[in-house]
Amino acid sequence: MPGGLAPFFAASPAQSAAPSAALRLVAIGASAGGVEALGVLLRALPARCPAAVVVVLHLAPGHSSRLPQLYAQQCLLPLSEAQDKEPLLPGRVYFAPPDYHLQIEPDFSFSLSLEAPVFFSRPAIDVLLETAALACRSSMLAIILTGASADGARGLARVRQLGGGAWIQDPATAVSGVMPAAALRHAGADQVLELGELAACLARLVDAA
Fold first, then answer.
1. Contact 2/158 with Cβ under 8 angstroms?
2. Phi, psi of 157 (to 5 degrees)
3. CA 206 to chain centre
4. What is the CATH number of domain 2-9+21-52+59-122+130-208?
């Protein structure tokens, strides 16, 4: 399969097949316990990454985000907060800004929205994944990590419906298993892995793409 994706996706019988396009986007969603979990994944990314990496971490409204600075010493890739109308570039990590939904447009640029929170969260993982699925279809991978709400489950189902890959942190090993368990029930997954295994598989996938 093009892009080296096939070894790392295993489609379940009732869900979408493995992505068939070269990897263009890795979208990651996390909430409670997500600061530490994200650090594990970001440390695993090699300096050469052919995909853009976009992260939604639930943040309290009205607070500035210092996530790029927090992870700067842990990640080999450039990190920044996503800006409205900014084009996504490969080999960069983008974080959703606080109190805005982050969307990916068909021209592979960002847009920010002040629409109502989803599961009390803005940014919401569902918004990112649903728009990314439409823009990227089979050229994306979505990852759901630890969290304490059902945000991300609906978006992950859309990703799979349109041919993208879906990985979920094993709920039994997450700081909060509510989010990964909800995603698994609603959408299923190509991989359900402990966090360290997730990071290792992500590193291999990106390196092979």
1. no
2. -60, -40
3. 14
4. 3.40.50.180
| Full pLDDT tens readout for the chain, 209 residues | 223 333 344 433 333 333 446 999 999 999 999 999 999 999 999 999 999 999 999 987 766 678 999 999 999 999 999 999 999 999 999 999 999 999 999 999 999 999 999 999 999 999 999 999 999 999 999 999 999 999 999 999 999 999 999 999 999 999 999 999 999 999 999 999 999 999 999 999 998 87
Half-sphere exposure of 155 (CA within 13 A, CB side): 31
Residues in the chain: 209
Residue whose structure tokens are 């960069």: 92
The residues annotated as belonging to the active site are 31, 58, 151
